[in-house]
Amino acid sequence: MSNELKETSSADLTISLSFESSLKELEEVVRKLESGQTTLEEAIILYERGSQLKQHCESILSEARIKIEEIVVKNGQELGISPSELSKILPPESSY
Question: Is the overall model pTM greater than 0.70, yes or no?
Fold first, then answer.
């Protein structure tokens, strides 16, 4: 399988993962990289996969933030969630 096809397949698989699954896999990638027990080639592949997973998690978090903000605005803050309280639930976008 060519590298280009592997990259496409890997990216396609990432899109279908839930946030929790993506985060769990990302944590595993980080653990493997931090162990120092991989070859250079494996480390590069893991780093690339980690980058895809990070981007996917950031996208999901961004969508969640937008949805929560829409709910708060729609309900006139009936839920009792102010923008400052929202930042306690979800990390600020700049931390992605």
Answer: no
Please identify which residue in the block is written with the tokens 């162990």. 35
Judged against a pLDDT cut of 60, whether residue 52 lies above it is answered with yes
> What single string gives the DSSP state of each residue in 63-94?
HHHHHHHHHHHHTTTTT---HHHHHHHS--GG
In sequence order, what are the residues at sequence separation of 6 or more whose Cβ sits closer than 8 angstroms to the Cβ of residue 60?
19, 22
Please say whether the beta carbons of 90 and 65 come within 8 A.
yes
Name the helix (H) or strand (E) containing 15: helix 3-15
Measured CA to CA, the distance from residue 91 to residue 86 in angstroms comes to 9
Cβ proximity of 53 and 87 under 8 Å: no
Whether 48 and 86 have beta carbons less than 8 Å apart is answered as no
